[in-house]
Every structure is written in structure tokens, then in C-alpha cells.
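Sanity check

After download, print the first record. It should look like this:
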Amino acid sequence: MARTFLHPDEALKLVLENIEDYGEEKISVLDSYNRVLVNDIYALNDDPPFNKSSMDGYAYNKEDENKDNYVLIEDKIIYAGLSEKIKVNRGECVKIMTGAMLPENCNAVQRVEWTEKIEDEKTIIKFTKKEISNNVIKKGNNKKIGEKIIDKKFLLPKDIAILAGFGFSNIDVKKKIKVAVVSTGDEIANIGESLKDGQIYDANAPMLVSRTLALSCDSKFYGKVNDNEKEIKDILSKAIEENDIVLISGGVSMGDFDYVHKELLELGVKQIFHGLAMKPGKPLFFGKLGKKAVFALPGNTVSSFMTFEIMVKAYILSCLGLKYESSYTNAVLTDEFNRKDDERLEYVPVKLIHNNTKLEVRLINYNNSSMIASFSDANGILKIDIGISNIKAGSIVDVRFL
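Expected C-alpha cells:
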């Protein structure tokens, strides 16, 4: 009986139906880079919290602007951070610095460059040029108390600045998902080792660890094991016990030495699917053991990368409470594309280039999923549906950025 393979769209649906909530915690804003907020964040106070000067100059009441000369309050300078209440009468002005709080009865600032100081019995500040603006940033001009300031998301440095600027010291974030990465295969050598005949370096583990770290996971490489049933079972048992998600590279196809699928089932992992009508990525396995998720990815590095991008990334983002969007967009194919096998949905690494007002898709020198070096030129994925073997140059195609 011929084996049937699941359509990738159906597989993704199953992945998203099996997400878990791995909890939340309160942390310092100082430690919040790349962490995921539990909720949207709303302003605790107005921004700015007071009327403030937007430049160095002299604060005064603009209702007196028909006057050219103002009496300077000589013994006072209002600088940023000064909390002293200074009384400025009509016809008077006071020196003020950028960012400083305006006195209550002032509503404008004359920039210092457009003034002239006249020494008399009292020091007079003459305004030499009329201001168009008040040069004042009003209280709540940027955000008012209670307004949303940050959506639920991965926090970037600019977001951390916003949080700190609004007085947040601690925030609620999603707990880091614990991820184990395991590589399998006699043909694999760890980076730093000397290659033996017939061996290649393990590119998958460093890639998977870095991809999960970028998604705010607590990731650990459990090492490389040979194609030995007991070794595979032992390391998978330990990885599953200690982590929320286990990513296995290699040993999941139909070869004589592909033991991963068998050992996962013996460990009690419930298979949700194994095998997709997808290129690259046909052998992908997804299963659960309680709240633990297991993805066994193909050994070829581009296949491993693509299955992570399409399936694993979607699972992690959804577990973190973020909406997963595949974000495909239309683009113009610059070269004709042909393939012999049109029975699988194919994801082709491509180079996406903005050319004036249109997005162009350029094919790269890529022939199979083991060509990791050529993958370095790719910044996008071209999606080709089942049943399509030829796409003419100039056609509109579906792409997404990596």
C-alpha cells in the first residue's frame, strides 16, 4: 500500500491546534530584551508629564507678545529636572533650558538666538524676531495616560526605552520555552572536530539553536549521537524529560539506519503526522507527549531550515501568544522556473529585490536541499503549489521574506 503524505497546509493546521501555554513571569525591564509581552502595554502617565520647553531660550506669556521687551528674572534659570515653582509675572521672562518644565503662567518660549540682552536698571530681553511656534511640548502631547504604547510582541531596544520612559520597572512576559536540539547520524562531525572520510560538519544544530534563541527560547544542544538505537533512545528520553520542545535533526526518513521515528513511538510520543507533500521537508515528524512537543526534522540543512521556518516557528510563536501570519505577498518572477516533480508543494529559496515600485523574485543557484552554501544568497521563499511544473518569467508568484 502506497504511503500518503499530508498537505503542508493541513499539517500546519494540526501544529497550531496542539499549542501549549508554558506560563509567564515578572521580570525587570532591564532584562526584557527580546522577551514577549503577556499583554499590550498602556501608559501609566501622560507623555510628557508636564508642559516643557523644546529649546533653550526665555519662557514668557504669549498674551504679551505685542511687547518687544521683557524684564528678565535674573537670579533664576529653569533647567531640566528643576522642580522649584518659579513665579513669572506679566511682562517678565525667565531663562529656560531644553526639556525643562514651563512655569505655570508661561505658555511660550523665545529661542535664545532671536533675542538681545539690554543692560539697564533691570536686564531687558529684547525679542528680535517673531516666533511662529510656541516652542512648547504640551503635557500628554505624545501619549495620554491609559493610551496603548506597545502591542504584545518581542521587545526591541526602542520598546525598552518606551517602557522605562513611562516608569515601568517590571513587566509580565511569557516564560522562555525550553528547547532541546539533538543531531543524529554517523556522517555528522561536530564543529571543531577533524572530518573523517565520508563525514560532514553538523550545520543543523547551530542553526536550530540560533533560530530558537532568536525566538526568546532557552535553547540547549544535547549533542550528536550516532545511528545507534540505544544511544538515540537515551538522549531523546533525557531531552524530552527536561524540555518543552525537542528538535531532532536527521534519522527520520525511511532508511535502514533511521531510528528516530521508532524510538519516539517507543518513548510514548503520540504521532500527529509523519511525512508531508512538501519539498524540501518530506520526512518531517510532529508528535506530543503530554505538553511536550517533538519535531523530527530532515537531516539536509536547507530541509531542516525550511521545516523550522514553516512549522516549528509557527508553533513557538503561537505558544508565546503571538498571532502567526505566514505573510505571503505577490512578486514578479524574473526568470522562468521549471521542475519535474509537481506532486509536492515546494518552497524554493530565492532572492527578493525591490525594483522601483515592484518586488522582484530572482532564482539563485539552488538544486537540492543539501546546498547550504548557495542558500546564503537567499532572503525569501517562493511557494509553488502542487500541480505546477512551469512558471513563466514575468508571472506573479507568492513569496515571503525570511
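If your output differs, re-run the checksum step. Summary of this record's structure: Residues 123 and 209 are 68 Å apart (CA to CA).
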